[in-house]
Queue: 3 jobs
Job 1
Amino acid sequence: MSPVSATYWGIPGYAIFWVLFIIAFGLFVQRVYVLLRLMSLGKQENRFGRIGLRIKNMLFEVIPQWCSLRSVTRKDLAGLGHALMFWGFGFFLISYIVFIGLAEGFGLHAVLMGTTFETVYASILDIAGVFVIIAIVWAAIRRYVIRPERLEINVEAGVIMIMVFSLMALHFCIEGFGIAGSGESAAWPPLGAAFARFLSGTDISQSTLTAVSHGAWWLHYALILGFLVYIPRSKHLHVLAAGPNIFFKPIGPNVVLEPIPLEAIEDPEGTEAFGVSKIQDFTWKDLLDLYACAVCGRCHVNCPAQVSGKSLSPKEVIHNLKEHLLEAGPGLLAGDTGESAKGQNKTLIGDVVTEDEIWACTTCGACQEVCPVGIEHIRKIIELRQNLVMAQSKMPESAQLMLRNMQSRGHPWSGAQSLRLRGDWTQDLELNILSPGDSAHTLFWVGCTGALIDRNVNATLSLTRVLKAAGVDFAVLGEAETCCGDPARRAGYDFQFQILAEENIELLKSYNIKKIITSCPHCYNTMKNEYPLYGGDFKVVHYTELIANLVSQGTLKLTKELDAIVTYHDPCYLSRYNEVYLEPRRIFQDIPKAQLREMERSKKTTFCCGGGGGHLWIEEQPGTTKINHIRIEEVIETGADTVVTSCPYCLQMLEEGIEHKGIKDSLQAKDLIEVVEATMK
Amino acid sequence: MNIIVCVKQVLDPEIPPAKFKIDPETKQVIPPPGVPPVISVYDERAVEAACRLKDTHKGNITVISMGSEKAADVIKHAISMGADDGFVLSDAAFENLDSFGIAYVLSKAIEKIGGYDLVLCGRQAADWGAGQVGSILAEILGIPIVTLACDIEAADKNIKVKRIVSDGYEVLEAPLPSLVTVSSEIGLPRLPAGMRLMIARKKQIPVWTAQDIGAEASQLGTDNAHTEITGLSVPDRKTECEIITGATSSEAAVNLAVKLNELK
């Protein structure tokens, strides 16, 4: 007899089953509805294109658990535990639908129970149950005993662990007491049957055994329903939101900054519309991000700002935004925006996220790279900066200085920072410098830093010589080149970016440029991924891609030996933002005797040099460690005598780190192109 | 409150010193290639002062700049900061004027605009640095002048100006209309916010010639000039660097004090 067909105190089991279900499901639906309504507070955004690819991406990420396994390192195996839990619990979820929903709820008991299918599935559940228990115990030990930095002690995690553990324990009780109570001897499912044999050996009566089994069944049914009610009300909301969030992940570049629709702005004096100053200024996808976060803290331990002691923690930002949405959202939905309404007295910038946090971000993208559920931290931070800069005119003085230079001088370097003029580097070189009316297919876009800062000019000259030696036909803009706009955009001054982008695109089109070679990964990212939205469709390559091809084609021969132990520092905007990390390594492979030693954080999980997101010019929070000093330590760990990179910002930051350490004799920083030139035939 | 701000377009003062060249024959500066001229830093602070007054008292800001037609760029910069309108004063007859000639041209343009409560200028230009135009302009317009302002407050028919003096500041009151020259102590100019950049970009800046403002040729001739440039050269700069040392930092400080005493 099944637990549901029994009668309890005169009430049929079926009635209890359905009443409990309706209450729990009602509470579940009610909460999900509220959450969806809160999400609808956000602005519109189209994330529905290429549905097929999105479904494929989501299934590929979630079912094989690539989302959590990807971040598994020797030091952090938690992703493996998550995968075990996901798969194990997945089997249980199916069993709940089949053996509780269909068998008990819809009266298909006779059809399903006692079949080979049931025996086989129950055996699978036994194994899955063991895996889930292992994962849970391991998780509990990790969180409460080992206490890794990224996890915090919180009640919600404990509740869910106890719930899942209890469900597993009850599963074995139901099986064991059930089989023993029925008086039959069974070999399968193995653990349930073994437990039953043990119980049969005791002197507990059969009716007691059955009663315990039924009791355990009802308890576990109640727990499952409790789970249903609890999940959307806790951080485990991520169970529901993670899949959809991965589905709606950006396709293409990971940081999506939409052009500000200038024509649509009716009141030019009303500037509060710029960027994000209220929770409802985010898009619905940004708000879905908040639901998807399980506070796992991977972003927290990988964020260079956090690691170097700044107040920013991407985890805290997302978590605080979520709390704020849940607190202030209902009032907003009800149209009650009065000061007294709950959460309304809090300002998004200031109370929920502080200005220090907003300015500490280097936009390196480490948080997004390790986030298993596809949360987009960076654009939120940039949009908050947009509001600070464009609407409130509030920014660190160093940022203002840089932005004012961008505006009046067309580049971010000011005063004594550069003793050069834009076109100086072209002196005494036979170059095709474009002047109005000319036309060229390929342009070498030098970038501000490569044209204005002595150290980086060396790399620019090196690249020029290598390109010439390889017979590449290219033109340059010389003194007519301006900034691509990247530092302005990352610092939130999107108008200035837009002006520069539009002017540059117009200029490049006037010369019929089809292909652009960049030496700066920031220019590369901006021109490749962001200019198309402003009408600039050029084929953009970074020089590492071009050189790697020239070398593999044999056009460029690297025949001289490299007498150095090198490590390669991947620039974020090249490796992480644009997946260019194999090309530099291919170049090293072709250099005779090159010894490349990898840093632990390399390729797509590289560690920021500290110079991105405008931070080459924006001061780091006083009293904190400098990010480049941390990176230099990682360089030193490899035992390399040369650290090579392919970004002018990184080169500067690494050199400053070396200088700071006072180890110029044992370690030098080089641009990859300088290594290429030195080993070229 | 209607404010007129006079601004000048100058060679970027942040040009590396080695790039600064002059032609001793024509006694003119040769601008280096690829460096856009900028608004004179003091004038930018005058625009900032005007914008601050507009923030609290509403009103209209008109910016004028005498120079080449390219001076429209600095007018646009002022508009992006918060000014409403602007005019470029450009005419072959305006070239090579001294402070008196420039003040005359500006006064004619200001008279043409009319209806002003306050005229603001930078304390001096960032290129020649004569610091005379403001005073002469006030004289021609026949209005009071307060120089070297680090703060301006407006109240009804008066302004209260904090004026920088060598050992602090003094506070002066003047009736409107007046002219005030603004010093850098007023604070950093604002970063043009939001849409203002776009507004400025699209704005057409009219160019007024001598005829448009009714400037008389007799006032613009070289015979009328009060000053004459007899020579122009890049100063020879010599720096001698001596590092004062000491076994301890206090000893170094003592050595430094001794050295300074010697040089007194």
Note: Chain B has a mean pLDDT of 91.
Job 2
Amino acid sequence: MTTHEQFADDLALYALGSLAGETAADLDAHLEECAACRQELARLQGDMALLALSASGPAPPQRARQRLLKAIGHEPRSPRAILVRRRWWTLAPVFASLVLAIFAILLWRENARYRDRIEALKSDAAQNQATLEEAKHLLVLLTDPSAKHVTLVAAQSKPQPAGKAIYMAGNGALVFMASNLAQLAPQKTYELWLVPMRGNRPLPAGMFKPDRDGNAMVMMPPMSPGVEASTFAVTIEPEGGSATPTMPMVLVGS
Amino acid sequence: MSTVGLQPGSADAALIARIRSGEQDAMAELYDRYSSLVYSVALRVLTDTGAAEDVLQEVFMQLWRHPASFDARRGSLGPWLAVIARHRAIDALRKRRPQTDLEDVVIAIESDLEGAAERARAAETVRASLRAMPAKQRAALEMAFFQGMTHTEIAAETGEPLGTIKTRIRTALEALRRALNAGSPRPRLASNT
């Protein structure tokens, strides 16, 4: 291998750090590719080292040694310790970020779950609201004194007292509507009875008095849930009601 | 080409290994072995003892902080420290940031300079070679090496053409190498291709 002659002068200047600008850049690029010139550069550095050796002079003062050893003492360097400590310090923020990231993802997921839940609840609430509005209207219709109640019977027949009980045994909900009832004597009241499927003792299911038109209603009297009904009946009782029905029955239905 | 690197069993190799594992005593030993060399180079360039001490401190602290920056395959420790000291001293003289990366300094040298006696002998050979050079050649080399002047600055100062300065510096370095190779008492060659 021989050095490229055209670079020989520049290599010497390059080793001395005296080459700059474009020439230095060109030589840099050439050195990347040319092993012979790299070798020559290393030799030139060797020459410079020998040149430096020729500069022998006085030894440095003692204080320079103390200064160095003090500085080294301030920068103790146990490779293993530094490695471990550095890893610790370097990795701590990484761990922290990781934990935060995981935490953030968990929070985000929980947040998303809650958002879904809220949406579902909102939708339920809207539905409930609609049902409630409907029920309210129904209730107003049934209970408002200004509502007109008309009982339809077969044409050309005389209206008879009649009643309709709507009952759900599961929750004990009961609505009773009657029409064409005869007016009561003073100190008397109509009383509705529920005759259970098991055991024949009738249970009181509310007292009522008809309006001027003979219409009356019992809405949701306090009943025990779970009692299957076989028969409903209406009797006339003294004001305040009775423990057992007083015969005869005004209305009865099974 | 063959050059001298640190032999595995050499005193320098053992010191560097101990420095790498953080032994402060090893650093003190290394300092005792090479501080005069580093300081002399810095003082020759800077001609100021305080500034030379700063360079001395900087060079050894760098080795302490980055012992891996010295790679025995790239040359032996003494010449490497001398070249680093010269570069850092020129940087200080020119009041600029360090221009040379420690890892970039690769030294091929055909003499064993680990012992103080070998170094003294080599230094004497170099001085004799410099004395034997034509004055202008020596001046150009010393301006470039010890004063850190660029060839353009030397050409401007001496009034010589640029090409002449370039050739003069290269010829001076070649003369130096010839003298060293001829006078090398005991070339210990480690393969380094």
Note: The CA atoms of residues 36 and 64 of chain A lie 41 Å apart.
Job 3
Amino acid sequence: MTTDSSTNGPNNKDKTLGDALRSQGVSRRSFLKFCAATASMMALSPAMIPKIAEALEKARKPSVIWLSFQECTGCTESLTRSHAPTIENLIFDSISLDYHHTLQAAAGHGAEAARIAAMEENYGNYLLVVDGSIPLDNPGYSTIAGISNYDMLMEAAKGAAAIIAVGTCATYGGIPHANPNPTGAVSVGDLIKDKPIVNVPGCPPIPVVITGVLTHFLTFGTLPELDHIGRPMAFYGQSIHDRCYRRPFYDKGLFAETFDDEGARKGWCLYKLGCKGPTTYNACATTKWNNGTSFPIESGHPCLGCSEPDFWDGGGFYKSISIPTQDITKTVVYTAAGAVAAGVVIGALNKAKKSKMASSHKKMTIDDLGK
Amino acid sequence: MTHTNSAAAQFNIQIGDNLTWNVRPLLHEVKHALDNLINTGETAIIDLRSIPLAPGEEDKILNTLGRGEVQSQLNALGPSEIFETEYAGVWIVTHYNEDDEIIGRFIEITTMPAILCSQNEDVIAAYNRLSENLEDNRETNESVVEKLS
């Protein structure tokens, strides 16, 4: 992975992926193997392998600028800790990662200068990757080199060909956005309306989904087909529930009631233990984690629904989705009033929760997690 | 090298019979693809990662198909294992990365998986390389002959 812009001379960037691979002594047979793994990774039909080979052969290195805002670096960890070095490296060898403040060698003014230089040199053509949400209440909550997240995003977005929002924080606000949203966190899509945005949610997203979107751009020069909330259909087109190997137990009405009962031991459906699989769209059930080893449900834990907006406020990870998320009578009163002024009411509901939490200022215990 | 992928044994996951009911339909798909290969010569590839399978079900498919007369191993960006099953024309192609982790597993219905064939680009590169080597050797030999004379 190239993180130092000084090593990317114009000649290096003009090289096609095919040229780069051949100069590294990668045979055509190895390249075909890479394309087969790529097709599988992008959930494309194996019949597409020759087309992927033809397109990747001619692909040129795009400049990528990666901005990290209110986040935990879990998304970057997910990507860089994935244990498929050869294939992932080939993808990353084929982009020019010009700015990523966690990964790059440069720091301080040098790092910011690299970002500015990459933006100017590739104006209108670079890919902007963002992880983390953007605080609007007070710009001082999160800054980089003294620049607020909002200002940096708006400046970098201007010259971007497209934006890839990585992780649930960048896509839908994520954990910073959870009630009572103390920093006024918003997503990239809340602020940018005039650029194509691909949402790659997940807390964190599956690494191959991140590289899959980059590879799709490299392969076809376009962004993938998206669903109604901006997610690539190839990875988020089907619910966890529909692709879950425990689905037949759901259909038969066989459920684990606790984590140590007979149903849990027999691998029955985790719906009653709070599984959000039926309302969650992601590729975990087929792509799986740790290079295809397993996914949470396979390890006996319900899906948390981390690729869905507001998953943190879903009413409890261990409460079945058939149970209402909050006191229905209270919500109904607010909703009736909300028919007149919905925005004001939602604000009031959040404000009440916010001030209640601030005044009591309690630390959360493990028992609270189940409430 | 023998690669096994028995997640069920490793993690003590309970395996029920017919968990997803995907094993038999998939084997029927293989049968239909084989029929197609016989009658039209058309090949087919099935990506095992695209189908929901419970722990142990992939092993069930592989055990049903068994191992036939041909086994081969590639060493291209990590190992790959390619073998013909007991059913001629049905091949299992498994690609690993350099850490021996599976990055793709396919059932190919064909007389010869394409990745086993020498690729045109590699053949051309091989011709050029061999020609250069022979040219180098000729120059070296000539200089030796000159010295001797």
Note: Chain A touches chain B through 42 residues (CB under 8 Å).
